[in-house]
TrEMBL record:
Matches recorded under PANTHER family: NADH DEHYDROGENASE [UBIQUINONE] 1 ALPHA SUBCOMPLEX SUBUNIT 9, MITOCHONDRIAL (PTHR12126:SF11), NADH-UBIQUINONE OXIDOREDUCTASE 39 KDA SUBUNIT-RELATED (PTHR12126)
Protein name: NAD(P)-dependent oxidoreductase
Domain NAD(P)-binding, first and last residues per copy: 16-122
Highest taxon listed in the record's lineage: Bacteria
C-alpha cells in the first residue's frame, strides 16, 4: 500500500532535536520538503547546526503542558524522540508524565499524526520481567497510541550508526579487548538496524494513512547474537579475530560498570542498554513495508551498516553522537551572571598570557582543545580525574569530540559540554563530571595589536554545601600546575601555529 502523497510540505514538530536521532531527523525532514519546528529546553544548543536557519526552534520541555501546547500550534506531525534514560530512579514516572502531556496536547491541537521511536520488546516476556528502560518505552508507546491521534510507534532494537551509544559500545569493546570475558547476554539474539533505515522510516511515517494507529517492529535483515556482532565488526574493521568467553556471573550492574570502564559510554547509560540485552529482541513482523516499501538495497545489512559508520568516524563526519543529549544527572544551570550574581559563593581562578601570534591562531588552538589534542597541562592529572569520574559513574574523559577541529554549542567535549561559543573569541565549557557543585571553564582570544593576542582563562566553581567548599580548597593547590600550565602551553602552541606541539 502506498503512503498518502497529499501530505507534502507538512509542518513537523521534533522533540529531542538535541539528541542523537532527533539531530539527524531534522535535516532529513527538511530535505523531504517539510517545515520543521524543534522543541528544546536549551535552544542555544541547536544554533550552530548546519540546518539551524531552516528550522524554527522554540523553548520548552515535554513535561510542561503550556510549552508543549505552544509548540503544537499548526503542527501536522509530532515526533516524540525523548526518553528520561537513566535520569534517576523515578525516570519511569517522568516518561509517563511527559508522554501523557504530549498525547493530550497533540489531541487538543488537532495534530494529524504522532510518530514515536521506541524499543523492540521481547516476545512473550511479561512487563514485570522487562528492563525498566524497555518497560518504560513500551508504556510510552501505549500512552501515545491511546491519545486519539493516529500514532505510529517504530520499535527498534540496536541502532547501528556512527556516534550511536550502541555502536560506540560495540566498537570500543571489540577494538580494545582482543580477549574478552563477557556477560552471558552476548549470546542473546538481536536484530540490529542501520540508522539510515531508522531515519528513512521516521520520515516516511509522516505520510502514513490516517487510519494507521499501531506499532511496527523495524530491523535489518540480519539476526545475530551480540557475540556475532563483535566477531563481524572485527572482520569489517580489519581486526584480528576476537576470543570471546561468556560467563554467567556478571550481573547487569557489574556488566554496566565493565562497559563503562572499557568504552566511552558511562555506566548510567550502559546499564539500560545491557539490561535490554537480557532477552531476545527480534522483529515479529515487517508490516511497515506495506506502507513504506523497502527501496533497493534496504534495509542495510549489519556489515554494510558498520562499514558506513566506520567510514564516517574515520572521515570525521559524525553529525550527532549519543552524547549530543545532556548526560542524565549532569548540571544544566547556565553560568551565573556576574559580577553581581547573588546566588552564593562563586570561586574563580583567572589566568592570562600575551601570545606571540594573532588572535585567529590562538582561537584555532582554543577550539581544538580536548579529545586527541588533550588539555595542554599535566596529562596525568587530567587522566586521573577522568578515571575517578568513571569510578563514581560519571562520563570521564573518553567521550572525546564529535569533530576534531570545530565545536558547536551543545557539543560534548570529554567531561565538559560546550555551553557558549563565540567563534573567534570565547569558548565556555560546563562540567558534566560528578562534582559537589557546578563548574565552568572559559577561554578567550583577544587581539593585542602588533600581530599579538591575549589569552584569558577563567575556571569557576559554585560549591554545593560544605562538601563543595571543601572540594575547592582541597584542589586549589594544584591549580597553578593544571590551570597555570594550561594557559602557558596554549599560548606557546598558538605561537608555534600548531595545536599539537604543547600537549
Amino acid at each position: 500500500m502506498d503512503h498518502d502523497d497529499s501530505t507534502d510540505r507538512l509542518r513537523c514538530l521534533v522533540t529531542g532535536a538535541t539528541g542523537y536521532i532527533g539531530g539527524r531527523l531534522v535535516p532529513e525532514l527538511l530535505a523531504a520538503g517539510h517545515r520543521v519546528r524543534c522543541l528544546a529546553r536549551s535552544p542555544e544548543k541547536l544554533r550552530d547546526h548546519p540546518w539551524a536557519d531552516e528550522a524554527e526552534v522554540v523553548r520548552g520541555d515535554v513535561t510542561d503542558a503550556d510549552s508543549v501546547a505552544r509548540a503544537m500550534r499548526d503542527v501536522d506531525v509530532a515526533y516524540y524522540l525523548v526518553h528520561a534514560l537513566g535520569s534517576g530512579k523515578d525516570f519511569e514516572d517522568t516518561d509517563r508524565r511527559a508522554a501523557g502531556v504530549f498525547a493530550e496536547r497533540a489531541k487538543a491541537a488537532g495534530v494529524r499524526r504522532i510518530v514515536y521511536l521506541g524499543g523492540l520488546t521481547p516476545s512473550g516476556v511479561p512487563a514485570d520481567r522487562l528492563s525498566p528502560h524497555l518497560r518504560s518505552r513500551a508504556e510510552v508507546g501505549r500512552i501515545l497510541l491511546a491519545s486519539g491521534v493516529p500514532t505510529a510507534v517504530l520499535r527498534a532494537a540496536v541502532i547501528i550508526g556512527s556516534g550511536s551509544a550502541s555502536f560506540e559500545m560495540l566498537r570500543y569493546l571489540t577494538e580494545r579487548l582482543p580477549v574478552m570475558v563477557t556477560p552471558s547476554w552476548v549470546r542473546t539474539r538481536i536484530q540490529p538496524i542501520a540508522v539510515r533505515d531508522v531515519l528513512r522510516l521516521l520520515v516516511g511515517s509522516a505520510g502514513l494513512p490516517g487510519d494507521v494507529n499501531r506499532a511496527f517492529d523495524i530491523g535489518g535483515p540480519d539476526i545475530l547474537t551480540y557475540r556475532d556482532m563483535m566477531v563481524r565488526y572485527a572482520r569489517v574493521a580489519g581486526l584480528p579475530r576476537r576470543l570471546i568467553v561468556a560467563v554467567p556471573v556478571l550481573t547487569p550492574g557489574l556488566s554496566s560498570h565493565w562497559v563503562g570502564l572499557v568504552t566511552p559510554v558511562p555506566a548510567s547509560i550502559a546499564r539500560p542498554l545491557t539490561e535490554s540485552l537480557r532477552h531476545e529482541v527480534v522483529c515479529r513482523e515487517h508490516d511497515i513495508a506495506r506502507y513504506l516499501p523497502d527501496p533497493p538495497g534496504h534495509p542495510l545489512g549489519f556489515d554494510q551498516a558498520v562499514r558506513l559508520a566506520l567510514r564516517r568516524v574515520r572521515e570525521a563526519r559524525v553529525t550527532t553522537r549519543w552524547s549530543s543529549a545532556a548526560v542524565p544527572g549532569a548540571p544544566s544551570d547556565p553560568l551565573p551572571t556576574d559580577p553581581d550574581w547573588a546566588g552564593g559563593s562563586l570561586y574563580t581562578d583567572r589566568r592570562e598570557a600575551v601570545v606571540d601570534a594573532p588572535a585567529h591562531e590562538l582561537w584555532r588552538v582554543i577550539e581544538g582543545v580536548g579529545g586527541e589534542h588533550g588539555w595542554y597541562s599535566f596529562p596525568l592529572a587530567w587522566s586521573l580525574r577522568g578515571w575517578l569520574d568513571r569510578m563514581v559513574g560519571g562520563v570521564g574523559l573518553r567521550r572525546g569530540r564529535r569533530d576534531a577541529e570545530r565545536l558547536r554549542a551543545g557539543d560534548s567535549l570529554d567531561f565538559w559540554r560546550v555551553e557558549e561559543i563565540e567563534r573567534g573569541h570565547l569558548l565556555r565549557l560546563r562540567a558534566e563530571m560528578r562534582l559537589p557543585g557546578l563548574a565552568w571553564l572559559e577561554m578567550c582570544a583577544e587581539p593585542a595589536g602588533g600581530g599579538r593576542s591575549r589569552y584569558r582563562q577563567r575556571a569557576l566553581f559554585h560549591p554545593r554545601g560544605l562538601l563543595g567548599h571543601a572540594y575547592w580548597w582541597s584542589v586549589s593547590p594544584f591549580h597553578a600546575v593544571v590551570f597555570g600550565g594550561m594557559a602557558r602551553n596554549i599560548a606557546r602552541a598558538a605561537a608555534r601555529q600548531g595545536p599539537d606541539v604543547a600537549r
